[in-house]
Automatic annotation (TrEMBL):
Protein name per the record: NAD(P)-dependent dehydrogenase, short-chain alcohol dehydrogenase family
NCBIfam families reported for this sequence: PRK07231.1
Entries under InterPro entries matching the protein: KR_dom, NAD(P)-bd_dom_sf, Sc_DH/Rdtase_CS, SDR_fam
Domain Ketoreductase: 22-203
PANTHER family according to UniProt: SHORT-CHAIN DEHYDROGENASES/REDUCTASES FAMILY MEMBER
Amino acid sequence: MTGDETGAAAAGPGATHEFEGRVVLVSGGSSGIGRATALAFARRGASVVVAGRDRPRGEEVAAACAALGAHAAFVAADLSVPDAAAKMVERARAAFGRLDIAFNNAGIQEAAAPLAEQPDAVFEAVFGLNVRAVFLAMKAEIAAMRELGAGVIINNASVSGSRNPNGGLALYSASKAAVLSMTRTAALEYGPAGIRINAISPGRVDTPLMQTAAANLGLPVERIAASLPARRVGRPEDAAEAVVWLASDAASFVFGHDLAVDGGFLAS
């Protein structure tokens, strides 16, 4: 565990105490949107638990959070293993004694191929991490938050869950549609218990996952950017700020919502 420094001075310009006293769990936190989200919460005073499979990179993110003045810890978690989600939440609670906010961010995308050519094992891998792991994490997170009488869960979906713009990624798109459906239903079920559950749907955000997908589909990033009303691809920080807002008290009346962070993709 790291993070003995506290205070806005250590965190640098723009730091606040908005989430002071709250514990945030970020799965898939070692890179991309997860990394940016962990740092965004750290700047705002939260204690941050970074979870992921890549220990060196995850520990680097936790150290970066500590350098911003946050208490931070890394938890090793391979969420493709069924019992790993519950253990992740248990270890997060053990690190700081509670769980207030969870961002279920870990996910994978298959190599592009027509649906009938996708092996059964690829289906199992995509749905195992993108759907089953989110389901199991939510079960454990909800149980922890019900003890507090409050909490926030944000699931990372995708614009592909609402609109599939390219052939070859049917499994990824279907898995993200399932995440959106689970999010909305769980929001109805647990909102009365004080637990707000929402999702973000990133569009073309510059992460390793997007770069791999663009290469698989033969789409240059410049062409993707030119097709968007924003005329640029997103930054991981764009998605991170959406997560932070959904977790904040400013969004206290937002339940079961899917917040698109897509540069206008779904509107076009």
